[in-house]
Amino acid sequence: MGLLNAWDFQIPIGGIRFFGFNLFLVNQPAAVRRLMVEQVEQFPKHPFTLWVLQPLIGRAIFSVNGTEWERQRRLVDQAFQVAQLQRVFPQMEAATHDLIARLDPLADGRTVGIDAEMTLVAADVIVRTILSRPLAGPEAAVIFEDFSRYQRRAGQAVMLRLLRLPQSLLNRYLATHARRIRVWIRQAIEARLSGSAPGQAASSQDLLQALLEARDPLTGSSFSLEELVDQVCFLFLAGHETSASALAMAVYLLSQVPEAQGRLRQEVTAALAGQNGPLGFEALRQLPYGAALFNETLRLYPPVSFFMREAQLTTNLLDQRCPVGSLLTISPWVIQRHEQHWSDPNSFRPERFLADQASTEERRMAREAFLPFGLGPRKCPGAAFALQEALLVLAELVRRYEILPDPGHSPELVARLTLRSVNGVRVKLRRL
C-alpha cells in the first residue's frame, strides 16, 4: 500500500520496473475480467501468492491451478451449499452468544479493542462450524499469536523475495511459524477420524464432516488426510482472518456514522417482530440494509486488498505491452475506491448496494468493480458464509449496544495477508 499514490486511483492501468520485475496495476473492469474470468489459465495466480502460503496451507484450493484446482473446487463447493449454511447456523449463534457475554461487562462507555473481539468471535465461528467445538482461553491466545506471527513474516518474506533472496530459505523460515498451527489442526482431524474428538455427537452438522463426505462427481475420489489438513488450514486462515478484518471495520464505521447504526437497529427490530430471542436463520434474510452496509464496508476496506497474477505469455493489456512473467496486480483497495468507477468513492454510503436506492451506474459498478471475494471461477466459495456471519454479529451488537467512537483514535491500516490496523480498532460500547 505504501507504493500507491493518488494517480493510481485514476488510471486504467499502470506499469513500472521494480527490482527487475515488470509490475502492473490493472484497474479497468474489462481488463480485470479478462485476467480473472475470461483467460484464467493464461493468467494464473502468481508464484509469490502460492509459495508464501504453502508452508501453512500446503496444496489447498487457494494454492493450486489447473485440474488439481478444478477437482478441489468440486469437493469444497459441496461443503458450502446453502443447505449447509443453515446446518451450521446454530454454531454461529453459539459463538455470537459468547461474544455478547464477553462484551456485556465492558458496555459501560469504556474503550473496547473491537478488532481483538472480532478476531476471537470469527475464529470461534470457524472452529465451531468446522470442528463442532468452541475456541477460547489459552488455546485461542496461542493460535491467534501463531497466525498473527505468520501474517507478519509472510509480508516480510514477499518483500525479501522481491529483493531476490532464495525462495527455499524463505520457505524454511515460514515453515517454522506454520508448524504449530498445522499440528493443531491435524490432531483435531485425526481425533475426528478415530471417533475420539470432543463434540463428536454433533459433528454430523459441521463443515469437516461435509468435507469428509464430499465425493468428486467426475472421479468418485475424496480428500485424503493430508488434503483435509491443507483445506482446513486454509479455511481457518481465510474464514477467520478475512471476517475479523471486515467485522472490525464495520463496527468502526457504525461508531462513526450514527445514522447508519440507527437504521440497522430499526431493521433488526422489525425483523425480530417483537420477539426478545436471538435472530433466527430466516430473520437474517430480512436485513437488506445490513447486507448493503456490510458490502459497503467490504468496498472501502477489502480484507484481501491485492490479488497477484502472472502473465504466461507476452501480451497487451489495453495500450501496454505485458512481457511474459509479468506480475499483474488487481487491487480491490484501488478498484473499489477508483475515481472512474464510483461517485464519491471515499465516502461511506451503503445505499449504493440497495436495489431500490442505487443509481443505474452504481448497480453496474457493483457488478463490474466490486470484487472483495474475487471474480470468476476462483471467486471465494465462502462469500455467503461470511455474509451470514457478519449479519448475525452486527445485528446482535446494534440491538444491545450504542456503538460510539473513541475520540482521537483512527485505525492505521496495513495490507498483510489481510487488511489489519497496526494500532488496533477501538470503539466505546454503551448498553441500551
Which descriptors would you attach to this protein?
alpha+beta, Cytochrome p450, 11% strand
Question: Which helices and strands occur, and which strands form pairs?
Answer:
Elements: E1 13-18, E2 21-26, H1 29-38, H2 47-57, H3 66-79, H4 82-87, H5 89-103, E3 108-113, H6 114-131, H7 137-162, H8 167-194, H9 207-213, H10 225-256, H11 258-272, H12 281-284, H13 288-300, E4 307-310, E5 315-317, E6 320-322, E7 327-330, H14 332-335, H15 360-368, H16 383-400, E8 401-405, E9 413-415, E10 419-421, E11 426-431
Parallel strand pairs: 2-7
Antiparallel strand pairs: 1-2, 3-11, 4-7, 5-6, 8-11, 9-10
Query: Rg from C-alpha positions?
Result: 21 Å
Strand content: 5-15%
In the CATH hierarchy, the architecture is Orthogonal Bundle
Total E-strand runs: 11
Q: Low-confidence segments, ≥5 residues, pLDDT <50?
A: none
The strand line-up of the biggest sheet is 1-2-7-4
The average pLDDT score comes to 90
Largest sheet: 4 strands, mixed
Tell me roughly what share of residues is in helical segments.
40-55%
CATH topology: Cytochrome p450
CATH superfamily: Cytochrome P450
Could you walk me through the main structural features you see in this protein, from its secondary elements to its overall organization?
With about 425 residues, the protein is α+β, with helices and mostly antiparallel strands. The protein has a single domain, classed as Cytochrome P450 (Cytochrome p450). The chain is built from 16 helices and 11 strands.
What would you say about this model in short?
This protein is α+β, with helices and mostly antiparallel strands. It is built from 16 helices and eleven strands.
